């Protein structure tokens, strides 16, 4: 399987068709507002939010989204996203590239062997090396923002080599 951003853009168009709102406005109303994301930009070319890229939020807001997933869709005792969806959307479906792992529903899924201990994690990967990485085993969310357009996988190297390897087993 090769990643295809066209599928994500098509999903954005479907959301707009079904809700009458752009994916950005739908996200602002039904997700962002509930988790405290108040400032977001999402390019809207030809009237449809680009499903695969263009969303701009702060690193802190990325962390809020990662924590929402880490906590099975729950924030302050309120279920924002169904835990069933959290589980489904982060379960590996398709083998992709050897250096990345698997793809799920808009999340990449992988694992790392640290001295014989298999550490599973999932992550959102954005253009230029933007990452939201969730490691449930260690109750950990890691955020990277970068401008590594020619080497967008470099932050993943840092994550594995310097963060995961530093975790005491």
What can you tell me about this protein's structure?
This protein is an alpha+beta fold and 169 residues long. It has two domains: 1-57, no CATH class; 58-169, 3-Layer(aba) Sandwich (Beta-lactamase). Helix content is 34%, strand content 26%. The protein is built from five helices and twelve strands. It has helices spanning 5-19, 23-35, 59-70, 83-89, 154-164; strands at 41-42, 44-45, 48-49, 55-56, 74-75, 78-79, 94-95, 102-103, 108-114, 117-126, 130-135, 140-144. Strands 7-8-9-10-11-12 form a six-stranded antiparallel beta sheet, sandwiched between helices. The longest helix has 15 residues, at 5-19. It is globular and about 50 Å long. Residues 4-151 form the Beta-lactamase-related domain.
Helix and strand arrangement:
Blueprint: H1 5-19, H2 23-35, E1 41-42, E2 44-45, E3 48-49, E4 55-56, H3 59-70, E5 74-75, E6 78-79, H4 83-89, E7 94-95, E8 102-103, E9 108-114, E10 117-126, E11 130-135, E12 140-144, H5 154-164
Sum this structure up briefly.
With 169 residues, the protein is of the alpha+beta class. 34% of the residues lie in helices and 26% in strands. It has two domains: 1-57, no CATH class; 58-169, DD-peptidase/beta-lactamase superfamily (Beta-lactamase, 3-Layer(aba) Sandwich), CATH 3.40.710.10.
The radius of gyration over CA amounts to: 16 Å
Low-confidence stretches: none
Q: Give the CATH architecture of the largest domain.
A: 3-Layer(aba) Sandwich
Distance between the termini: 34 Å
Estimate what percentage of residues fall within beta strands: 25-35%
Count of individual helical segments = 5
CATH topology of the largest domain: Beta-lactamase
- The structural domain count equals 2
Strands across the major sheet, in which order? 7-8-9-10-11-12
CATH C-level class of the largest domain:
Alpha Beta
Described by strand count, sense and barrel closure, the largest sheet is: 6 strands, antiparallel
Q: What percentage of residues falls in helices of 4 or more residues?
A: 25-40%
Tell the overall outline: globular
Oligomer: single chain
